[in-house]
Amino acid sequence: MFIETEREMTEATVKYRQDYLDGLYAVLGERRREYDGIREKYIDPVKCAADRERYRTDLMEMLGWPLTDHTDLRKKPLRVTMEKAYDLEYAAAYRMTFEVLPGLRTYGVYFESVKNGTDKPFAVLCHGGVGTPEVIAETFETNNYNGIVRRVCDSGDGVNVFCPMFHMWAEKFGPPLSSMEDMGYERTRVDARLKQVGSSTTAIEVFAIMRELDWFMGKGIAKEGHIGIAGLSYGGFYATMTAACDTRFAAAYSSCQFSDRYRYGREDWIWHESGAKFLDAEISGLIAPRPFFVEEGERDDLFDVAAFRSESERAAGFYEAAGVPERFISHVHPGTHEIALDDTGVNFLYENTK
User: Fold this and answer.
1) CB 197 within 8 Å of CB 220
2) pLDDT digits (tens, 9 = 90+) for 36-81
3) Could you give the count of Cα atoms lying within 13 Å of 304 in the half-sphere of its Cβ?
């Protein structure tokens, strides 16, 4: 006797599949509660303040190679190309490539502010998903970055800006990119295979920013104590992670990404047993005591503002333990998934890097 496959799949076994899935989520929920306890024993605001460098090393080990070997790898020759691309009203733009590892050339656009200020601050501005340096600079059209490159370049007496490129496109990329779904698949596939060999997309791209910053500092364009980093969405993730790993950043600004990583945990934002060590609040403890500004849109359709507020409360504890509670600022703007139209974050970045 043969059973009709479609009927068997759609009727007879639905309850068993649903029961199994419900069980998986129940086990996951219980496991997360156990890991919350493990994480609280491993790191808390007081422990982090007392031994921040140990935890910073642990974070880089969790993210993987090349961050695990960044000190030695950064001694190797760095091959750089730089060509004038175009002039904007507020900056001259240069396309750049950096051979950060043998055979791996990263790309970015450097915006040299036209303002006449001397000893200008330097900022790394990070694009988000399905983005590029040209997208965050709104070279083609306006978008949810709300003129952030122009606004930062025009801050005070001028700020020089570098926008690195991250792997945010699909395998068959077009002009400029495909969808978040396509991007997510390709990025997740690469990330999984990097994790198989002790690395991760995050580790590669944070290391790339370190190497790029090495060059700008070597040329005197970026100066110790006057370097900031900011980004939207995925870019906010990179601003947070990079500032936590690299203390040369004097201030960080993360827009529309700081949140509950259990609830919003893309595969490339998760590492083996990361719940036992670092969620967003704990990572902010590695940016402390340096100033850190996080913001969320009240009407963001990707991240719940309530989750942002809850994680911000936890992060504030790390700044209190560091003795500088005023250096952590949590800001909710009235917009959606976008850089705030008000200049609170932009002014924060300039004031803490000028």
Assistant:
1) no
2) 999 999 999 999 999 999 999 999 999 999 999 999 999 999 999 9
3) 9
Calculate the CA 210 to chain-centre distance: 13
Alpha helices in the chain (DSSP H): 5-7, 14-42, 45-50, 52-63, 70-73, 133-136, 148-153, 180-196, 201-218, 234-245, 280-287, 305-321, 344-351
pLDDT in tens, 82-112: 999 999 999 999 999 999 999 999 999 999 9
Give the contacts of 232 (CB within 8 A, at least 6 positions apart): 126, 127, 128, 136, 144, 145, 148, 255, 256, 257, 338, 339
Of residues 205, 143, 132, 140, the one with CA closest to residue 169: 132
Kindly provide the b/e burial profile for residues 128-158, where b requires at least 16 CB atoms within 10 angstroms of the residue's own CB: bbbbbbbbbbbbeeeebbbbbbbbbbbbbeb
Distance CA(302)–CA(336), nearest Å, equals: 9
φ, ψ (nearest 5 deg) of residue 10: -95, -15
User: What count of residues does the chain have?
Assistant: 354
Q: What is the pTM of this model?
A: 0.94
Residue 184 sits at the vertex; the CA angle it makes with 110 and 175, to the nearest 5 degrees, is: 50
Distance CA(238)–CA(219), nearest Å, equals 24
Q: Which of 210, 209, 235, 239 is nearest to 72 (CA)?
A: 210
Q: What share of the chain is helix, strand, coil (3-state, %, to 5)?
A: 45, 20, 35
**And the tokens for 272?**
């083996």
The amino acid sitting at 175 is P
- Cα–Cα distance measured from residue 334 to residue 6, given in angstroms and rounded to the nearest whole number: 48
Gyration radius from the chain CA atoms:
21
Residue 95, helix vs strand vs coil: strand
Q: What confidence score (pLDDT) does residue 13 get?
A: 80
Six-digit token string for 340: 């705030």
All structural domains of the chain, each given as residue ranges with its CATH number in brackets, are: 43-351 (3.40.50.1820)
Question: Sheet containing 160-164: which strands, arranged edge to edge?
Answer: 79-87, 91-101, 104-113, 160-164, 122-126, 227-232, 251-255, 292-297, 328-333
Contact 279, 55 (CB under 8 A): no
